[in-house]
Design brief:
This protein has 464 residues and is an alpha/beta fold. Helices cover 44% and strands 16% of the residues. A seven-stranded mixed β-sheet has the order 2-10-9-8-7-3-6, sandwiched between helices. A four-stranded antiparallel β-sheet has the order 11-12-15-14. The chain binds pyridoxal-5'-phosphate (PLP).
Length: 464
Amino acid sequence: MNELLRQLPKMDLLLEQGRVLHWIERKGRTRVVNALRQVLDDLRRQILEGTDPGDLLVAVVHKLNLMMVADERMRFRRVINGTGVVLHTNMGRAVLSEAATEAAVLAATGYSNLELDLESGERGSRYSHVEELLRDLTGCEDALVVNNNAAAVLLALDTLAKGGETVVSRGELVEIGGSFRVPEVMKLGGTTLVEVGTTNKTHLRDYEQAITEETRAILKVHTSNYRIVGFTKEVSREELVELGRQKEIPVIEDLGSGFLVDLGEFNITDEPRVDQVASAGVDVITFSGDKLLGGPQCGIIVGSKRAVGAMKKNQLTRALRIDKLSIAALEATLRAYLNPERVLEENPTLRMLRLPVDELESRARELARQLQIRLPGATVSAAQDVSRAGGGSLPLVELPTWVVRIQAPGFNEELWAAHLRRQTPALVGRRKQNTLILDVRTVDPEQWGLVGDLLSDAWKALEE
Ligand SMILES: *Cc1c(COP(=O)(O)O)cnc(C)c1O
């Protein structure tokens, strides 16, 4: 025992170890030395109790690693979104409703009937939980959900168009969010892209002339993030459906940000609802779950029994499958849509998009008043501005809003913003010429106290 105690590594030796140096660099010498003392005390006690900890140097470094990692904050953390972008892809897009959150927690914390048919006791399908809801809400014959909308488009092409040609308008060969590029998804889906028309104009005859024996599908893509204005022509969905019928070729439409209700007087887009697209006779419609729908990340596919049924049988579906947390949250999100008035209040995405300007104004004035008290050295004011619906969905849509502007003499807004990003929760706003701007559309009043704490802490830290 005494021999073992004598063999405990000395601090000098420990401070030369590679892992120890790594932690010193990350957390500072004092923190690491204190932790090492604690580790050595623990080991000494263990030895006195009669346990042999094995190689002592290895044991010390191992225990130190555990302590240091436990010490680190979670990398994944809450961000207070002061940008006003309601569907911010980098900040996780849609915020889930209370009902959807509860459903996800339920799925996470216990066993469930994910793939168990409780009537028969036999194996069930994970898709069964949302199929009927999606049929009722869109009027389509069949539905399927996968991991995200990119996966939905891939699955549609792989199932319906593999080995043949797919006709797409040149004006719709878009890239969305840097990682979803229509020509590349087509390549992955094993279908040959046949471009028709020109960037600004595509006529029905262009599609007609492109259709050959090899054509398997006509694809229509929502050009979410750009718009061609001026001298333009696109072929209507009804005309494409009619052409598809004549030639017996399915029409697939990637709606991007499909939505199920009108936003009333707050309508922010002239896009049709999913049920309207479906009633035009499109065979397969795909859209994201975490854009305007305001649900979990997933790709929703609705359409004809024939097309969607074939997609369900495709082996690729297994590789693209949606997880149980998302299924549960999606069912709760969709269920709210059965009451179109209530969903506008209960779904956070729809609620934020619909906030009236006078409500935003009074929120901004009140938040500015509260922040001015916390930040006596700064000038805090409320001002009119514009918010955006979201980079991942309708980046072109601008909504009138109100913001809080924080200005301070000799103030380095870069440093302040960087400090705020490193806090837990992090606070992210916009910056403009010595001004930090917080859009009240995306900051819940429940977070205001915290915003005040974060700003005044950062202020003090930067003063030092
Ligand atoms: C957003 C978008 C996608 C990608 O959807 P994810 O759910 O992010 O995979 C595909 N197509 C269009 C038109 C989009 O707007």
